[in-house]
């Protein structure tokens, strides 16, 4: 069972490797509020912090200077230097990791993970059900607002057999009149069962994005926990092209030196490798999805 934070760690490890990352790090030694324009870092590692971008938890800050005597770090531009690059100024507790000039900020990794989750639809869908009683005088019935497509429909037979048989003749209406159906989604049934018997509609919906670091992947998104690796592949292939931008910053000495070693071809090859892994796993999961829960055509034997 993977959490959001665990997925972030997995993506970072694939992007940076387990031992090759040379990012400079320190830790907070005093709690920090969302409006603080100075903070205390560990005195033994504070010299690892340089002027420029730094990451505290999920927040990006601009560092102006640090005092080696007091271990105090000052934020460039005051509060304007907090919550930089679209991150959120937040409270941080003692012991929170500080990373100088992060190659792949946690905020960007989290965005890529949620983009990968959203990108799985409609290739992979989350399933939900809705039940209602059949009314002989009614053809059209409301569906929940999150319904994106109908997978199959069954109607309960009368009798002790407890059988819910396929109902092959129906039409999903994604543009239903909101005057009659407030969600704007409905299903029209052209088969009948005994009035009062239960109708079950299994429908497809989109996954839910992760928010908190402790969010459990399967519980929140609705996908099976086994496809968390697919999301990791999807996030990595989205983030790797960012290395090209760093390589092109030739005013930086490190970028100039590495340009001849880490070529465009190398980066493109890595992107293609993860794209291939992603496509292979996606096809496996798509096949398994139809096997585990056949859609209406297979379910009805057509």
Keywords:
single chain; about 300 residues; alpha+beta; Elongation Factor Tu (Ef-tu), domain 3; 6-stranded antiparallel beta sheet; 4-stranded antiparallel beta sheet; 13 strands; about 20% strand
Characterise this structure:
With 302 residues, this protein is α+β, with helices and mostly antiparallel strands. The protein folds into three domains: 1-19 and 105-124 and 208-302, no CATH class; 22-102, Elongation Factor Tu (Ef-tu), domain 3 (Beta Barrel); 126-205. Helix content is 30%, strand content 22%. The protein is built from eight helices and 13 strands. Strands 1-6-3-4-5-2 form a six-stranded antiparallel beta sheet, with no helix packed on it. Helix 4 packs antiparallel against helix 7 (264-292). The chain is elongated.
Task: Please give the domain count.
Answer: 3
SSE series: HEEEEEEHEEEEEEEHHHHHH
Characterize the overall form.
Answer: elongated
Computed structural class: alpha+beta
Q: Could you estimate the helical fraction of the residues in percent?
A: 25-40%
Main sheet? 6 strands, antiparallel
Secondary structure tally, helices:
8
Q: Number of DSSP strands? A: 13
